[in-house]
Structure formats: C-alpha cells, structure tokens
Write a structure and sequence with these properties.
The protein is α/β, with parallel strands linked by helices. Helices cover about 35% and strands about 15% of the residues. The protein is built from 6 helices and 5 strands. It starts with 6 loop residues before the first helix and ends with a helix.
C-alpha cells in the first residue's frame, strides 16, 4: 500500500519512481500512462483490442477482452520500462484497478517495487492525474482509444515530454530526463576513471 512507500518517493528527491494509470475510452478501450515523479517524463502504453472483443457475449467475471486485462497491462509496462536504466526503474504507484492483478509478476519481471493508492484517492498519483488531463487534449473522452497505434502514442508522448513545465523551472520533461541520464553517465565514467 501507499503507506509503505518510502519518503524519498513522496518528496520526489530520487528519480526512478513512476505513477501509472489507464485512460479509458469508448467500448472499454484504454491507453496506459506512466509518469516519472521527478522529471514528469511520460511513457504511453499501447493496449490494442484483444481478439474477440465485441464478438461474443461477455461472461461476468470472465476474461477481459478490451485490451487492458492484467496480462496485457503487465506486458506493456514490462516492455516499456525495461528500456530504462535500472536506477530509473525503482517503483510504480498505481490505483487498485483489476488491470494490476499481475503486479507480483510485474515486480519479478522489472524489479519495480509496486505500491497501490488508497481507494478513491487519485490525488495520491497527482503527477499521473495531471498528465492524464493533458492527454485528454489528444484523446478526448468518449473516443475509441484502440484506434491509435504505437507510433501515434509515441508522438503524443513526445509532445508532452517537450512541453516546458513550470514545476521543472520551465525545462521540459525530456530535458530533465536527459540531464539525469548525462549525470549518471558522468558519474559512471568518474567511478571507473
């Protein structure tokens, strides 16, 4: 639970702590969102419709066929976040949605510590909620989010990551992340030199 989360995550002092969520669209379509708490860097998860969605009657408590079942979300997070260096994948805070039912396997796959918000407490993932609001400029409510391909999601993430933020002293999330990566590279070279 979020009450177990270390203070370093709460005060944004240490990078590598992420907040995640789904934005939902028409017909239970969804896009996953990951936001790094220190830099506000955003990564979007492509969750295409699963085969069979809308073709068969749904069974109560049956498998999710909308593209954002637990396995699809786990795989998308793993594939996306593993592109980052280990020091930038420390933890993930999510709400208590069923899409995170495979959180234990996600932790094994990625090494992320997983924390869950209290019920009805979206404010505990404030950076992510703010970013989801910005994303609605690109993905309006009530639209089919499954129609957007990975390339489109990357373009939208790029637009958000190159947008200056007051909280970053008017730097962009991309600049803030780049600064962290360069700083890490310099520290590694200094340690070996």
């Amino acid at each position: 639970m979020i009450s177990d989360r270390p203070a370093e995550i709460n005060d944004r002092a240490v990078p590598g702590h992420w907040e995640g969520d789904l934005i939902l669209g028409l017909g239970s379509s969804a896009i996953g969102t990951l936001v790094e708490r220190t830099t506000r860097f955003t990564m979007l998860l492509h969750l295409p419709r699963m085969e069979g969605h809308g073709k068969t009657n749904s069974i109560k408590n049956g498998p999710a066929l909308a593209g954002h079942g637990a396995e699809a979300v786990r795989c998308a997070i793993s594939e996306t976040i593993m592109d980052l260096p280990a020091h930038l994948r420390r933890s993930l805070t999510w709400d208590q949605g069923a899409e995170m039912a495979q959180h234990a396997q996600l932790r094994i796959d990625t090494g992320l510590d997983i924390y869950f918000c209290d019920p009805q407490s979206a404010w505990q993932r404030g950076s992510n909620e703010n970013t989801n609001g910005l994303l609605r400029q690109y993905f309006p409510k009530g639209t089919d989010l499954s129609q957007h391909c990975s390339e489109e999601l990357s373009a939208v993430a790029h637009a958000l990551n190159t947008r200056p933020r007051k909280t970053l002293e008017w730097r962009t999330p991309a600049e803030a992340l780049d600064r962290l990566l360069k700083q890490d590279m310099i520290e590694r070279v200094a340690a070996t030199g």
